[in-house]
Amino acid sequence: MKLQYEKPAELWTDALPIGNGSLGAMVFGGVHNERLQCNQDTLWSGSPRDQSNPEAYEHLPHVRKLLKEKKYIEADEAAKKLMGAYTQSYLPFCDIHLAFDHEDSYSNYQRNLDLTRAVLNTSYESRGVTYKRELFSSFPDRAIVLKLSSNQPQALSFSVRISSQLQTISQASGQQIHLIGRCPDHVDPSYYNTPDPIIYKNDLESEAIRFEAILDLQHIDGEINVSKDSLIITDATEVIIRFAAATSFNGYDRLPKTEGKDYRAEVSTILQQAVAKPYHDLLRSHLEDYQPLFQRVDFELDSSASKNNLPTDQRISKYGARDQGLVELLFHYGRYLMIASSRPGSQPANLQGIWNDELRPPWSSNYTLNINAQMNYWPVEVCQAFRMPYTFFRLHSRTERDWQTNCFHSLWM
User: Fold this and answer.
1) How many CA atoms within 13 Å lie on the side-chain side of 412?
2) Which parts of the sequence belong to the Glycosyl hydrolase family 95 N-terminal domain (predicted)?
3) Helix ranges restricted to H, 250-311
4) Cβ atoms < 10 Å from Cβ of 31
5) How many domains in the chain?
6) Cβ neighbours around 58 below 10 Å, total
7) Is the pLDDT of residue 403 over 80?
8) Chain centroid, CA 67 distance in Å
9) Which of 35, 58, 105, 192 is deepest in the core (most CB within 10 A)?
10) What is the CATH number of the domain that holds 276?
11) Which residues are CB-contacts of 312 (< 8 A; sequence separation ≥ 6)?
């Protein structure tokens, strides 16, 4: 019940996903430089507007007539006049960067995502010290939590900072980093070739979504220093990082600037509550929430464990669908992705769940309501928590062309 690898991710599609329905991250597991590419499900370009096509009803009788006459090609072309404008884009929130003070060489590297616990683990040895990271995105505490540790006292030294592709200001002070920003007022889809695909209006005129993220760092020993927008910790044994994010999104029909949520108060409250709880309490709350959902379904094709210890990429390459245990793992991975990208109170899972690293993602990472949103949720009631979002195909395709091919040849359990 693990996706496991013997090397860090090089590409975004190699990273491992975590999520609590609203707040997600793709985790690379780097040794010298770790990256958490973070998303929040209400971070979109644009602002509320009526994009209905007022002329659609005039063309509907003609489309129906063509269908009755079985002129399907002509009906398909005529139906384009029923469509409204394209939607805005689901956006990447930020990246958390950790730079470690390690020598170039390391050994015994392991990276895995435990589907039974929704916990991501990374471990390796460097200079005779074993380093471990344990990470999860908690639904009850609405935060990403990361524990870093070394098996020898005061052997852990690293810096942490936050960056974003959006217009932001990042500031570090004390033991926290604050990232404040706003979204573009307009983003053209990736398939539109336009001279200015990403537009920011003047701040006074803009009604785009505002947002803030806070990263908090706690340690049992060692020293923290601030350098510009980074926190630098030296000679620590264990460090706990908590990360929370919020936006001004306040519903599809409310302007996010003038009628938006108090996102700064919200993210501050979320983080204060998470900081007040010890790490073991955060982990226990996470497991008590997640495991009853994941344990609703039992599904077994192969009880043998002969291939289970192989790294997942090697297992796919060597055995493919001949490995029934791998097919079983794929089934449960789909259930995991559903739980991680759609929860009570969150937005519905979009084309890529909640994981996206591009300002102009494929199909804007949006909601295509002709069939795709429905397809995402078809199996949910059957398995009570199952989904195979397009994220899966992006995570297992090296090129855009491969990803598109996989999308159109989807394997649905």
Assistant:
1) 17
2) 3-251
3) 263-275, 279-294
4) 19
5) 1
6) 11
7) no
8) 41
9) 35
10) 2.70.98.50
11) 2, 3, 4, 5, 329
What is residue 320's predicted lDDT score, i.e. its pLDDT?
87
Does residue 228 lie within any of the structural domains?
Answer: yes
Tokens of 329: 């793992």
Domain coverage including residue 27: 2-43+90-290
Residue 199 lies in a domain: yes
User: What pLDDT, in 10s, does the model give residues 102-129?
Assistant: 877 899 999 999 999 999 999 999 999 9
Residue for token digits 């009788």?
61
How is 345-408 classified by DSSP, letter by letter?
A: TSPPPBTTBT----SS-GGGG---TTTHHHHHHTTHHHHSS----HHHHHHT-SSHHHHHHHHH
Q: Which letter, b or e, does each residue of 211-242 get, where b requires 16 or more Cβ atoms within 10 Å of its Cβ?
A: bbbbbbbebeebebeeeebbbbbeebbbbbbb
Q: What is the pLDDT of residues 294-318, one digit of tens each?
A: 998 888 887 666 677 889 999 999 9
Residue 251 lies in a domain: yes
Q: What size, in residues, is the chain?
A: 413
User: Is 143 inside any structural domain?
Assistant: yes
Q: How far apart are CA 375 and CA 292, in angstroms?
A: 24
C-alpha–C-alpha distance, residues 408 and 144, integer Å:
33
The values of phi and psi at residue 99, to 5°, are -115, 120
Write down the pTM of the prediction: 0.89
The per-residue pLDDT for range 40-59, each reduced to its tens digit, is 999 999 999 888 899 999 99
